[in-house]
Design goal:
This protein is mainly α. Helices cover about 50% and strands about 5% of the residues.
Length: about 140
């Protein structure tokens, strides 16, 4: 990836196979790959932090040096105890609901409470319920 991005040198390596090669080495060595390991970690393109997600939504290059699609991967934005308003509004928009800032703030409080209580990311159904609980029109 460095040769490709820094020096524009085509190595002929299929970058989408890096994850599979990494898994093979992990199995052979008996050492698991850390979820946040650069390039091949399962969660390396997963983002939760409020400021982090806001920056990614404006310009993915803010926190990602290259497009995850180059590796056959996708970016995941998750809601949790560290999320912010941008993430909530984005998640609501993704399920076809647009929320106003006041409503997003109320939903965010519910998201954080849910994450702390259950240790899980809220589902689309949870988000819809949170929006309904705000009592504000959507």
């Amino acid at each position: 990836m460095a040769l490709d991005h820094l020096y524009h040198d085509d190595t002929g390596i299929d970058k989408r196979a890096l994850g599979l090669v990494s898994e093979l080495v992990a199995k052979a060595s008996g050492r698991p790959v850390a979820a946040n390991k650069s390039i091949v970690g399962e969660a390396v393109f997963t983002h939760e932090s409020g400021l982090h997600v806001a920056g990614l939504l404006r310009d993915p290059r803010t926190y990602e040096g290259f497009d995850p699609a180059e590796l056959g991967r996708r970016r995941r934005l998750v809601l949790g105890k560290h999320s912010g308003l941008s993430a909530v509004r984005h998640a609501c928009h993704e399920i076809g609901l647009d929320v106003e800032p006041e409503q997003a703030a109320s939903v965010l409080a519910r998201v954080k409470d849910h994450a702390l209580r259950t240790k899980q990311t809220p589902t689309s159904a949870d988000l819809r319920r949170f929006i309904g609980e705000t009592g504000l029109p959507h």
